[in-house]
Amino acid sequence: MKALKNLISIFLIGLIFGGCAYNWIVEEQAIDPGDPNAPEVSFSTQIVPIFTSKCITCHTTGSQTPDLTPANAYNSLNSSRYVNTSNPESSLIYTKPLSSHSQTYSTAEAALVLTWITQGAQNN
Ligand code: HEC
């Protein structure tokens, strides 16, 4: 009987932790750029960190354009060369790291960048 109780406890513990792991994966899912109710993407807290971790080794001040350092990223990108709010998917800041660039976006990062442009590429 005790062994059975132990077995059931182990099963329940597994279920609890399995449940947590599942929730965590759901939260990691990419934002949907086509969803009009998608939460607002913040340039400073969600986009800039992507540039900082993946891009500024090359895209730094006085080096390769666009300058993607936190202080200059927004002004560098505020141009039709990089951002096209009427056709977000054609924006160079979205397309370039999707092709065979030295650094590429993860699926979740690409979705964030595209959503940010779709929402008007705000300096938020
Ligand atoms: C190892 C260096 C390196 C890294 C890291 C890098 N890039 Fe680049 N990037 C370049 C070079 C060199 C060019 C110019 C040649 C070309 O267009 O491919 C360039 C060009 C670009 C362009 C086009 C610029 C223009 O005016 O035509 C964009 C946009 C861009 N990179 C975005 C990014 C983003 C976003 C990241 C980070 C996810 C990134 N790059 C990471 C080296 C890098």
What's the SSE blueprint?
Elements: H1 2-28, H2 43-54, H3 73-77, H4 92-95, H5 107-118
The protein binds heme C.
Residues 54-55, 57-59, 64-66, 82, 92-93, 96-97, 101-103, 105 line the site of heme C.
Describe the 3D structure.
The chain is mainly alpha-helical. It has a domain of 76 residues. 48% of the residues lie in helices and 0% in strands. The chain has five helices and no strands. The chain is elongated. The mean pLDDT is 87. The structure holds heme C. Heme C binds next to helix 4. The site of heme C has 17 residues, from helix 4.
Give the key terms.
elongated; 124 residues
Tally of contiguous helical segments: 5
Residue-averaged pLDDT: 87
Number of strands: 0
Order of helices and strands: HHHHH
Bound chemical compounds: heme C
What share of residues is helical? 40-55%
> What is the CA–CA distance across the termini?
61 Å
Quaternary structure classification: single chain
Portion of residues in beta strands equals: under 5%
Which structural class fits the helix and strand makeup? mainly alpha
Unreliable stretches (pLDDT < 50, length at least 5) are: none
Question: Tell me, what's the shape?
Answer: elongated
Radius of gyration: 20 Å
The biggest beta sheet reads:
none
Short structural summary:
It contains five helices and no strands.
